[in-house]
Design brief:
single chain; 107 residues; alpha/beta; Transcription Regulator spoIIAA
Length: 107
């Protein structure tokens, strides 16, 4: 997993899973705490995530809300869009451009 960017936009790549969760959490929390306005999380380079990785994103979402900021997901890969729809988190998280639920294949 790699994260690059500043306190306005971060690009997450590789795998966001149990092995990388602690590092990702630290980077995301620092970005939320040190910035202002929306924090855009670009997931277009993300290969996969597991429940722990999704928990890191939800934790960053909650932390951003407490800081008066908004976490916005950009470039969510299709398989991850399906997971967000299945868990109904697409209704909670801000997703740039939204998710076209009707265009996702049924699982």
């Amino acid at each position: 997993m790699h994260i690059r960017g500043d306190h306005v936009e971060l690009v997450v790549g590789g795998r966001l899973d149990v092995r990388s969760a602690a590092d990702a959490r630290t980077v995301l929390h620092t970005a939320v705490d040190d910035g202002v306005g929306d924090l855009v999380l670009d997931l277009s380079e993300l290969d996969s995530w597991d429940a722990t990785g999704l928990g890191v994103i939800m934790g960053a979402h909650r932390r951003a809300g407490r800081c008066g900021r908004r976490l916005v997901l950009r470039g969510v890969p299709p398989q991850m869009q399906r997971l967000l729809v299945a868990t109904r988190l697409h209704r909670i998280l801000a997703i740039e451009g939204g998710i076209g639920v009707e265009s996702l294949p049924r699982v």
